[in-house]
From TrEMBL:
Signal peptide as annotated in the record: 1-32
Domain GmrSD restriction endonucleases C-terminal: 103-209
Phylogenetic lineage: Bacteria, Bacillati, Actinomycetota, Actinomycetes, Kitasatosporales
Organism the protein comes from: Streptomyces rimosus subsp. rimosus
Superkingdom of the source species: Bacteria
Keywords tagged on the record: Signal
InterPro entries: GmrSD_C (IPR011089)
Name by which UniProt lists this protein: GmrSD restriction endonucleases C-terminal domain-containing protein
Length: 214
């Protein structure tokens, strides 16, 4: 067994509070790996094509209008599929629920050995999607976004970091790990492009600034 210890790390990004990361020595844990988003040049093109529009209201929104985590077959739901995909040496309860493993969060390089310390982040948050056009969708379409394993919409990350993100767009929040900003922006733009979601002025400007530096 590798040696495991914990230390407290202060994350100075947005409203993220100090959090405890479990660091595992003597091993190279799996990096969270959603489907690879389009390259930077393509992301710039997609960003320019996004309809610029002020965010809509949250009136009527609830997470229940984006059903998740949906059944993915073989006794697995979407969360469990992502935990297996993004983890290393993932052990289950004999069905599909992860009981142990190692997960490295791409957002902050936190390493975790308990599934309960890991959140599955919706890269484009569900509330953000609602304000950007999903309010008009069918429930089936919203369920597709909330459980999308085909595009770069779901990723296993440190729970505290995900909670600090909330429903903020890239103008208000970016992963603490600055070297991941380019990938994050490509992921965000790709999802909004695929689903025909809008982007407000400050969001587009923030994304353009990131992509222009990549």
């Amino acid at each position: 067994m590798p040696k495991v210890y914990a230390r407290r790390v202060t994350v100075a990004a947005g409203s993220a509070a100090a959090l405890v990361c479990t660091l595992v020595l003597g091993t190279q844990p799996a990096q969270a790996a959603p489907p690879t988003p389009p390259d930077t040049a393509t992301a710039r093109t997609y960003l320019a094509q996004l309809t610029e529009q002020a965010e809509g209201t949250l009136d009527g929104y609830s997470r229940g209008k984006f059903p998740h985590w949906s059944d993915q077959g073989n006794n697995c739901n979407t969360r469990e599929v992502v935990l297996k995909r993004d983890g290393e040496n993932v052990q289950t309860d004999g069905k599909c629920a992860a009981t142990s493993g190692t997960w490295k969060s791409a957002y902050d390089d936190g390493v975790w050995t308990k599934a309960s310390d890991v959140d599955i982040d919706h890269v484009v948050p569900l509330a953000e999607a609602w304000r950007s056009g999903a309010r008009q969708w069918t429930t089936a379409r919203r369920e597709q976004l909330a459980n999308d394993l085909t595009h770069s919409q779901l990723i296993a990350v440190t729970d505290n970091v995900n909670q600090a993100k909330g429903d903020k767009d890239p103008a208000k929040w970016l992963p603490p790990k600055t070297s991941y900003h380019c990938t994050y922006a490509r992921m965000w733009v790709s999802v909004k492009h695929v689903y025909g979601l809008t982007a407000d002025k400050t969001e587009k400007a923030a994304l353009k600034k990131i992509l222009d530096r990549c």
